[in-house]
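Narrative of activities, Objective 1.

The group set out to show that a structural description can be obtained from nothing but a protein's sequence at a throughput compatible with the screening campaign. Below is one input-output pair from the validation batch, recorded exactly as produced.
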Amino acid sequence: MHKIRNFCIIAHIDHGKSTLADRLLEKTNTVSERDFQDQVLDSMDLERERGISIKSHAVQMEYSLNDSKYILNLIDTPGHVDFSYEVSRAIAACEGALLVIDATQGIQAQTISNLYMAIDHNLEIIPVLNKMDMASAMPEEVKDQIVELVGCKREDIIEASARTGMGIDRILTEIINRIPPPAGDPDAPLQALIFDSVFNSFRGIVAYFRIVNGTIRKGDRVKFVSTGHEYNAEEIGVLKLKQDPRNELGAGDVGYIISGIKALSEVKVGDTITHVTDPCEKAISGFEDVKPMVFAGIYPVDADDYENLRTSIEKLQLNDASLSFVPESSAALGFGFRCGFLGLLHMEIVQERLDREFNMDVITTVPNVSFRVFTTKGEEIEVHNPSGMPAVNHIDRIEEPYITAQVITHTEYVGSIMKLCIDKRGTLKNQVYLTRDRVELTFEMPLSEIVFDFYDKLKSISKGYASFDYYYSAYQKADLVRLDILLNGEMVDALSTLIYRGHAYDFGRKMCLKLKELIPRQQFDIAIQAAIGAKIISRETVKAIRKDVTAKCYGGDITRKRKLLEKQKKGKKRMRQIGSVEVPQQAFLAVLKPD
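Output recorded for this entry:
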């Protein structure tokens, strides 16, 4: 066991984690030249196209130092705030972390929140200053920031460049010398923590685990503690770039188990695996249950695909434990699911993965957050969906979730960022100058305000330099109203939103204008209205396509023309009574970007 080192790589988005992992794999000869490609651990096409890590990836490497052979288990983690749950799971399975910081950008918001998460788990932190080969690198300034943040010595900071391979040997040596070996007893009863799982259509569910105590052998009878189900360990092994079967794994090892599990509900991330004959006394205190921040309905385009969509979401949930869902139905869209996501990017990725990996065509409704409604009878109701709101005369008050947002930016953008946050109903709590030209702003603001386009606007205002991170604080009383969209007097429940009263008029007007562009013209006039309760606050009309019926009436009396036009008007009226308006898929997405 003293030859094993378990570590993860944490950093802000785009600071070079995946490239650094590539160099480590090359240096330890884990990946052959033939199999090598950039960002070798980013296995999804989606990750390559967007240049971001979505999943944490585990891989085992071997490295020799002073004639001793060491086993290094690396877990590469995502950097984006929406995937912080992946990071927390990786951290729980490790003893040390490489904290990668971009020498051209310095410390950013996500760096800080991931670092605190690692410190909470008592991980050994090794700071790495990446991108030292860039002309715009500012090593001395960034080292000052690191010393202040981590409290380490200047000489402990490793200068490296993942692109050129500079400093990689020193990183490997430091991992072996500074990160402690796993503490555990190979002779104790088996206790292993599941930190991830994937679905294999031929072999069932593959669970990835980290053994804390005990030893597991191929063919052992094992039990999953939280579900109580028992299985045979048909195959166990370690995770190289491909699965590498072994006959035995001991305390401290990171590996996988295949036991022919077909039911998706039987494997839970954070569960403990133990032996049936000699079980451990208590389960490992795994991960806290994830709290979804953003809710949206996902419906199949074709109603017959409902069961297929359920299976697809369950398989996706195996691989992405932060996704939660419950069935719901909508008058406009039929049967579907109400899904909880960690953020807007997470929602976009889930939608994309459903399309690519499972061939599912889906419609997503307006995302919103969960509200607490207190009724006049003193009941408390949690509302995820505007259609779940009680009648206005029964509502005593509504509370919405607030977050504490940290923005780290260059001093020249402070004014415009403050204006953006205050427009979004934020209040400035704190302002700290980290260095002469970098400032950390702390705001308290409603979560519903950052759901739509806050992140995009922040990036464009700061030319990409501001970094943003948030954590949930508490519920506070809010002045919210339900804004409905009516087409020809009929409400489209999938377009309803709960919105701050002061923003409702503006939002309703934009929505009507946007829908007027998107809804195709019919044989009759279509009235698009935005309403709060019974009060209409905005209206647009999509004009009917008219045929020139008077073309054949040349000369003669005007009453002949009028008679024809009256006849056409009656036809349009009758058509409107029986005609229905098809709302195109883009209209549901247009709500997200009314500008």
